[in-house]
Amino acid sequence: MSEMILTIALGYAQVTLALAGCLVGTRILRGPRAQDRVLALDALYVSIMLLLVVTGMRLGTAFFFEAATVIAIMGFVTSVALAKFLFRGEVIE
Amino acid sequence: MSPLQAVPLAVAIPVALLVVLGSTLTLIGALGFARLSTFYDRLHAPTLATSWGTGGVIIASALMFTVLEGRPVVHEFVIGICIVVTTPVTLMMLARAALQRDRSEGADGLPATGGETPPEDR
Amino acid sequence: MTRLIPHPVLSTTLVVLWLMLTRFSLGYLILGTALSLVAGWAMSALHPSTPHVRRWAVVPRLVLVLFWDIIRSNLAVARLLLTEGRNGRRSAFVQIPLTITDQTALGFLAMILTATPGTAWVEYETDSGILTLHIFDGSEVQHYRDVVGKIYEPMLMEIFE
């Protein structure tokens, strides 16, 4: 019983989060401006990170967690570097 | 045998609810991304995913692995803290960058540059 | 004491995070403590001024208010996003004069406002103390003016100033 509930809920979450990633991805392609793409990239990182956590729950392993942590941290660093670039036109002053 | 079988029903239901809540909020945020028309509106869409979207999934994961492994598993909260602390920084920097770029192009509907208080405050 | 542990809050947080990432054991506790002390010294070399929390008693109240606010605005923004295009929503820029000047308090205010769906911190002028916010639902401008000016600002002032 509990396996069925969890399989349905986690399967739903996987589909939903993948769909969210696709929707955000269309915004990366459509733009229209650079800041829209950077913002969408940041949101894409969050969706994919959550997808990894949910996949790890479904398979019952904690290994996906490491990947999710790396994505969470790297996503922040890239977004900040890109935002800085948009602001000034150079990353290191 | 699937490891999910070992989860008792009393834990499975809250875990399922939290996961569904978190992923639905993330989807709504992403939907906003696709539908909203201006950059400043879209700035609000990812906060849904990063507040309760992340929160729901992270709490559910911690709850499930705590029960599965029979010891407190809290490392998921590190991700949660990372996301909650870092997203505002990204959004603030992007907002400032966008404002500066829009101002340099002379776009309409932007707030006045500081130094002067808007009339309704005086 | 202050020379050995220049940033007690930062160091404690780092030890807790270290223990959360690994399993709890004496070895990890010692290693984490050593690392957090080094991080504290590095931090004081980079950023000499130490923020002082004056009244810890207000912190739980702030967390509770914030928690409730995030739930409420999550629901509000989700509802607005689902009915987008039919509800006549207009977003607005709001300029709010702030009285707090403490850097840490301003940092926390920025985090709070940006993390809450519905408000985004756009700009802050250091000389005039005017904060520009972008508000998703333009009809709630007065509500957010009150939230910033009457709830968060006094609380942060009590904590940090």
Automatic annotation (TrEMBL), chain A:
<feature type="transmembrane region" description="Helical">
    <location>
        <begin position="63"/>
        <end position="87"/>
    </location>
</feature>
<keyword id="KW-0812">Transmembrane</keyword>
<keyword id="KW-0472">Membrane</keyword>
<protein>
    <submittedName>
        <fullName>K+/H+ antiporter subunit F</fullName>
    </submittedName>
</protein>
<dbReference type="InterPro" id="IPR007208">
    <property type="entry name" value="MrpF/PhaF-like"/>
</dbReference>
<keyword id="KW-0813">Transport</keyword>
<comment type="similarity">
    <text>Belongs to the CPA3 antiporters (TC 2.A.63) subunit F family.</text>
</comment>
<keyword id="KW-1133">Transmembrane helix</keyword>
<keyword id="KW-1003">Cell membrane</keyword>
<feature type="transmembrane region" description="Helical">
    <location>
        <begin position="6"/>
        <end position="26"/>
    </location>
</feature>
<feature type="transmembrane region" description="Helical">
    <location>
        <begin position="38"/>
        <end position="57"/>
    </location>
</feature>
<dbReference type="Pfam" id="PF04066">
    <property type="entry name" value="MrpF_PhaF"/>
</dbReference>
Automatic annotation (TrEMBL), chain B:
<feature type="region of interest" description="Disordered">
    <location>
        <begin position="101"/>
        <end position="122"/>
    </location>
</feature>
<keyword id="KW-1133">Transmembrane helix</keyword>
<keyword id="KW-0812">Transmembrane</keyword>
<dbReference type="InterPro" id="IPR005133">
    <property type="entry name" value="PhaG_MnhG_YufB"/>
</dbReference>
<dbReference type="Pfam" id="PF03334">
    <property type="entry name" value="PhaG_MnhG_YufB"/>
</dbReference>
<feature type="transmembrane region" description="Helical">
    <location>
        <begin position="45"/>
        <end position="65"/>
    </location>
</feature>
<keyword id="KW-0472">Membrane</keyword>
<feature type="transmembrane region" description="Helical">
    <location>
        <begin position="6"/>
        <end position="33"/>
    </location>
</feature>
<protein>
    <submittedName>
        <fullName>Monovalent cation/H(+) antiporter subunit G</fullName>
    </submittedName>
</protein>
<feature type="transmembrane region" description="Helical">
    <location>
        <begin position="77"/>
        <end position="95"/>
    </location>
</feature>
UniProtKB/TrEMBL annotation, chain C:
<protein>
    <submittedName>
        <fullName>Na+/H+ antiporter subunit E</fullName>
    </submittedName>
</protein>
<feature type="transmembrane region" description="Helical">
    <location>
        <begin position="12"/>
        <end position="42"/>
    </location>
</feature>
<dbReference type="Pfam" id="PF01899">
    <property type="entry name" value="MNHE"/>
</dbReference>
<keyword id="KW-1133">Transmembrane helix</keyword>
<keyword id="KW-0472">Membrane</keyword>
<keyword id="KW-0812">Transmembrane</keyword>
<comment type="similarity">
    <text>Belongs to the CPA3 antiporters (TC 2.A.63) subunit E family.</text>
</comment>
<dbReference type="InterPro" id="IPR002758">
    <property type="entry name" value="Cation_antiport_E"/>
</dbReference>
<keyword id="KW-1003">Cell membrane</keyword>
